[in-house]
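YitT family protein, Streptomyces coerulescens. C-alpha cells?
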Amino acid sequence: MHQATTTTGGHVLSTQGRFAQRLTQGHLIRRLTQLYTGLALYGVSSALLVEAGLGLEPWNVLHQGLAELTGLTIGVVSIIVGAAVLLLWIPLRQRPGLGTVSNVFVVGIAMDGALALLPEAHGLAVRIPLLLAGVVLNGAATGLYIAARFGPGPRDGLMTGLHRRTGRSIRLMRTAIEIAVVVTGFALGGTVGVGTLLYALSIGPLAQLFLRLFAVPTASDGSTVVATGQPRGAILRP
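C-alpha cells:
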C-alpha cells in the first residue's frame, strides 16, 4: 500500500515537472516571437516614415544623412551605426542581450526590405496617413520588443551607460545624444520635419500603452511585467 502511494506521488511530481517544462518552453517561444516580430515591425515602421518624407525619428535622421553621404541603403547604415554604438558599450561596461544583438541586424534588414516593396508616395493625402501609420506602428513595435525582455537596443544602452558613468540624468543624456544625432543627420541631408516633432511627442505614450498591452506573464507565477516610470524611458532605438 505504501509502495503504491509512493509510486502515485512520484507520477504526480513527474507530471507536474513536464507541465512546468512545457509552460517554460511556451513562455520562451512567446518572448522570442514578440522580440523578432517587434524588431521587424520597427523596421517596417521606419520605412513608412521614410516614404512619408515628413520627418524621421532622431536616429534615422542620422542614418538617412549617412546614407546620402555614402550611397549605402539606410538599412545598411542602420546596421553599421548600431554595431559601432554596440562597441561603445565595452568601455561603458554594458552587457548586451539577445535582443540587443538582434536589434542591430533585424531592424535594418526589415527597413530595407519594406522600402523595396513600398510604392513611392505622392501628395499629402498619401504621405500624412503613412506618417501616422508609421508612428503608431513604431509604438506597437516598441511595446512588443521591450516587453519581451531580451535586453535594450544598442542606442538605449549607450544612453543608460553614459548615465551610470557620468552621473548625469538619463533625460540629459538622451537629450544630448538625440540633439547631436539630429543636427548631424540634418547637416548630412537627413529629413527633419513635422514627423520628427510628432514622433517625439507621441512615441512615449504610445510605447507605454503597447508595453502594457503586450506584457509577457512570468513563467513562475503568471503575473505580468511591464515597464514602469516615465514612458519615454522605455523607448526603443533602431
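Confidence is low (pLDDT under 50) at residues 221-236.
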